[in-house]
Amino acid sequence: MSTPDVFKDEIQRLTVSTVRTEPDMEVGVYLLRRLEELGVKSFFGVPGDFNLGFLDLVDDYPGIDWIGACNELNAAYAADGYARIKTGNVGAVLTTYGVGELSAINGIAGAYAEMVPVVHIAGFPSLKEQEDRPLLHHTMGDGRYNAYAQAAELFTHSHTILNDVHTAAAEIDRVLSDCVLESRPVYIALPTDVAYAKISSYRLNIPLPRKPLLNDRAAEAAAINEIAKLVEEADGDVAVLVDVGAVRYNVVEEVRSFVETTGFGVYASPMGKSVVSEAYERYGGLYTGATTRPEIKAKIEDAKLLISIGALKSDLNTGNFTNKLNVARTVELHATTTKIKFSEYAGVGMKYLLPKLASVLSTTSGIKSKTLTIPVPKWTYSLPQESDEIISQTWLWARIGQFLQPKDVVIAETGTSAFGVLDIPFPDNAIFVSQILWGSIGWTVGSTLGAAVAAREKGLGRVILFIGDGSIQLTVQELSTMLREDLKPIVFILNNGGYTIERALRGERRKYNDTVNWGWPRLMQALGDVDGTRTKSYVVNTKAEMDELLNDTGFCAAEVMQVVEIRMRMFDAPYALKAGTPFGSKW
Amino acid sequence: MSTPDVFKDEIQRLTVSTVRTEPDMEVGVYLLRRLEELGVKSFFGVPGDFNLGFLDLVDDYPGIDWIGACNELNAAYAADGYARIKTGNVGAVLTTYGVGELSAINGIAGAYAEMVPVVHIAGFPSLKEQEDRPLLHHTMGDGRYNAYAQAAELFTHSHTILNDVHTAAAEIDRVLSDCVLESRPVYIALPTDVAYAKISSYRLNIPLPRKPLLNDRAAEAAAINEIAKLVEEADGDVAVLVDVGAVRYNVVEEVRSFVETTGFGVYASPMGKSVVSEAYERYGGLYTGATTRPEIKAKIEDAKLLISIGALKSDLNTGNFTNKLNVARTVELHATTTKIKFSEYAGVGMKYLLPKLASVLSTTSGIKSKTLTIPVPKWTYSLPQESDEIISQTWLWARIGQFLQPKDVVIAETGTSAFGVLDIPFPDNAIFVSQILWGSIGWTVGSTLGAAVAAREKGLGRVILFIGDGSIQLTVQELSTMLREDLKPIVFILNNGGYTIERALRGERRKYNDTVNWGWPRLMQALGDVDGTRTKSYVVNTKAEMDELLNDTGFCAAEVMQVVEIRMRMFDAPYALKAGTPFGSKW
Question: What residue ranges of chain A have pLDDT lower than 70?
């Protein structure tokens, strides 16, 4: 692996900052150039009068497509979904001052919690307006022009108001670097006049940094030495548990290479599902604490050594804190630290450590042959034999497992869907997308828009959304944007009469968990497929109907946008959700 | 008018706070009792696991109906619309921790800007969870449990986290008093366990204060004396300009009585439209600065004395700051101050001043007879003669003017609708609802839900929404909640192919101002009227069709929910919007 020369970069950077060159580019265009550099080909948002000027620049910019969303929250969700699929790059969302940016803030906060690199650009009053502070529309009416930026600070890693033309380029570079390196959202307030101010484009000669700082070499060497010793002592009985940090900090390739080189059995947490292909021969399945299948549980909890990669120990990612990992037998790899048993090695991040560790272990004789003697459970899910035709949660997910294809992008809403999809063994390189920490219901609709755009850019497979009839009502309008953008997602709506995940928790039969039963087969006609020629809608009542649909080659080809209403029982949930909830456990 | 004895209240309050009584009521129920006292009969929101416990209390509480909305932003908008109609009372919205409350924050910020008393209650982690700070879902993942409350502080007048059971009742009383007296939103974070903690209900013996603090008596007397002198000098040529503060600070009755007693001609700003009935014989129409009709403009700008009531001088409320009011001839009445020419009388608020001033002026001989000699323009809007059948903006609003009935509640979305409705003379006691300062597009859909519920509670007339095909896409799902709640709004969708108000400003033909053309006649079937029996949908292409519909007595009776798509030109806008915009001025 080549070592980036930080000194060389730094010297070049210092040189650039002292060179005075003629202004030759609008601040807005500079920003677009940098976004493009970070992989942004599609840019989501909603127009508003504080961003229309910048939008002219976007519209005229050849490398980036504008994708107007129906509302700002959905646009933020879309940028998040886009960034998740385009690992190592960023997503971007544009909103207008106040009304727009605040509507998006839950989407940005979710990206923060789930470590997704989203750039939030908000239109901002001009420099003169900021000075005079007239009582403009979209202001609080009390002269506090900065209140929204203050709110943004709470939910982003870095933030800037581009009020100084002279530092605008440096500020853009600073926050965008943070976005991609820290994998967290950032906020840029862009005053209407500054978007058009001319600056030098000279800084563009230096690409933004894309790799983390190098590890502390001595600490790294010590850590590798220590881990190698533990591996040797484990005598082949080493398990790898992959979590969300692996994909967010862009070490997917390093992890794949590491597990292939060593032969260690590899498992995933819910948020780490599909980071390593679930079709990989040494992949053993999902670890969810107490509700884990016993054969998988034993492999993880009894391994002589567990190597945990990018762990995020939230309630729903750990079987509600029932994971039993023995620290005395665990190595934890993170973005900037390594923890070996009880000792932390600061400044030793996994991006550089993993390849070196793999290299050291590959030269230690006999390790791989020993690890390969340790069997890995087969991660399967058989169709249950049930006596009736009602589509049960248990049957559904097993059946969906047969339906999935390699490279599919599978998006599961917080609710029965996210729990259910976890159980499905994914085909090779199918990708799982969910919001297990933040859990904002409705998120998947916006996220599917962004993910589908990204999947098309990357040439991935079908985009398949699973969502309940309650959750989809929060954000439904964005299906219309998918239609306009000629995307072809398959949208499965699990119609079980309201908020089932909440019924499992509390108020099983309370009216507050009921939602209106919509006319799902009419939905796409209402949302823009006026003559019904550009989408297909289905209603599925029985297992036989579901089978027939999923066996239909035209349906599977997903050549138009398709919406499937699946009618299910109100009181039914996937196993893990039943097991962990007061009412669900009685279903 | 009776004078509240603040000392008596205060003594009683001090007594209560020192009385120790047995806990007999859950904190959640105490909160509901106080909300009910402030006029809350319907409570909007979305369930989530941090508020389900409290929701059980709501569900069991006889005096308050739970109205579950499709999403939190819409729920906040609904609480805002509800509060606007129930002048002097409050609206309430319930969300869950993080994901829910942040989705609602734009609605709360809008209520702040527009001075609407909305109580935002957010579910919050239990005391133990706050102490241990586990990595729960809906948290930021970094242990900052208070980040959302910090955001709420920016957009509310008062806020509290009910962590101390001993002060919970006092804290509830404090923020709710602020809500109703300051007419601004407040925030209450309710930990899951505290909702069920038992406290004494003794404080409920003292009602929350509903009236502002008394005026400084000496300053008030001086102000009245000064104003009376100016009125006398004006020799009857006095105009009254009513603005939004009059309704928000609950002086509608005082204003009505004042203008009737004095006979002064009365006019309104856009945000003050309908505060004084537009059918009142001495009502002269709308003042919008430069775009005001000349005969009205002269009456306001040339009056020897102008009495301005509750003014809010925002851009869109003043014809983009083109209002020409001569301070040397103006008296401004506000909630807590009075400004006479250039002098401010602090502590002299309009609630108590107006009746006293009316009383003084009524005993000054000859004033009313003089004022009645000053003619007031007739506020009318004739149907234009146009040669084609296309429904123009100019024609539409005039025709709608003929359609309105007394006590109708008319809600106009920011866009061509809000500008267009301003021009319509309203029948007696018809109410105008719009969001002219905050201007968050999509707001009216949620707001209509709340306004329609409030209108039903108050026995008002029809609820009529005007919204564009672009704006409705932000928040469309809440039409479904109106259906479930058996509300009967008439929803006019002005279909002009996108964001027309933005086209008038910039990007006239840019793609970012285009939206998807939905299948509007199918909309209500998709949103829950599955068999099409509970709503009616219409498409109107021509003036003749519009006439026919508006003349139909069944349609006018509004006995079911009705949705009307009005097909209009893309490049057309009401006069005021055309006049003030770079592209609109060419249409």
Answer: 1-20
3 state SS of B62: coil
CATH superfamily membership of B393-586: Thiamin diphosphate (ThDP)-binding fold, Pyr/PP domains (3.40.50.970)
Cα-Cα-Cα-Cα dihedral of A384, A386, A391, A392, to 10°?
-60
**Does residue A450 contact residue A91 with C-beta atoms inside 8 Å?**
yes
Q: In whole angstroms, what is the distance from residue B157 CA to residue B161 CA?
A: 14
Active-site annotation holds for B439? yes
Task: Locate A238 and state its tokens.
Answer: 């080493």
Catalytic option among B236, B439, B468, B497: B439
Residue A469 makes CB contacts below 8 A (sequence gap 6+) with A493, A494, A495, A496, A497, A498, A515, A517, A518, A520, A565
CB contact under 8 A, B314 and A137: yes
- A480 Cβ contact partners less than 8 Å away, ≥ 6 residues apart: A70, A527, A528, B473, B516, B518
| Residue spans per domain, chain B | 6-205, 217-371, 393-586
Copy the structure tokens of residue B487: 């509300």
Cβ(A44)–Cβ(A75) under 8 Å?
A: yes
Write out the H or E segment, with its range, that includes residue B187.
strand B186-191
User: What is the per-residue pLDDT for A299?
Assistant: 96
Kindly list the catalytic residues of A.
49, 72, 137-138, 439, 469, 496, 498, 502
What is the fold, at CATH topology level, of the domain defined by A21-205? Rossmann fold (3.40.50)
- How many angstroms away from the CA of A296 is the closest CA of chain B? 24
CA distance A513 to A92: 34
Rounded CA-CA distance A313/B136 in Å is 9
Residue A267 β-bridge partners: A241, A285
Distance CA B227, CA B247 (A): 22
pLDDT tens digits, residue range B224-282?
A: 999 999 999 999 999 999 999 999 999 999 999 999 999 999 999 999 999 999 999 99
Is-same-fold flag (A21-205; A217-371)? Answer: yes
* HSE-CB for A362 with a 13 A CA cutoff: 11
Q: What is the DSSP letter of B586?
A: G
Q: What are the angstrom distances between the C-alpha of A32 and each of A93, A204, A390, B333, B359?
A: 12, 11, 52, 49, 65
* Assigned CATH topology for domain B6-205: Rossmann fold (3.40.50)
Q: pLDDT tens digits, residue range B521-556?
A: 999 999 999 999 999 999 999 999 999 999 999 999
Q: How many CB pairs (< 8 A) connect A and B?
A: 265
On the 0-12 / 13-18 / 19+ scale of CB atoms within 10 A, B407 is middle
> Does residue B12 have a pLDDT over 70?
no
Please provide the distance, in angstroms rounded to a whole number, between the alpha carbons at the two ends of chain A: 53
**pLDDT by residue (tens digit) across B56-84?**
999 999 999 999 999 999 999 999 999 99
Q: What is A504-541 written as a DSSP string?
A: HHS-TT-GGG------GGGHHHHTT-TTS-SEEEEEE-
For residue A537, list its beta bridge partners. Answer: A563
Q: CATH homologous superfamily for A217-371?
A: TPP-binding domain (3.40.50.1220)
pLDDT in tens, A300-339: 999 999 999 999 999 999 999 999 899 999 999 999 999 9
Q: What is the pLDDT of residue B3?
A: 43
| B497 is annotated as an active-site residue | no
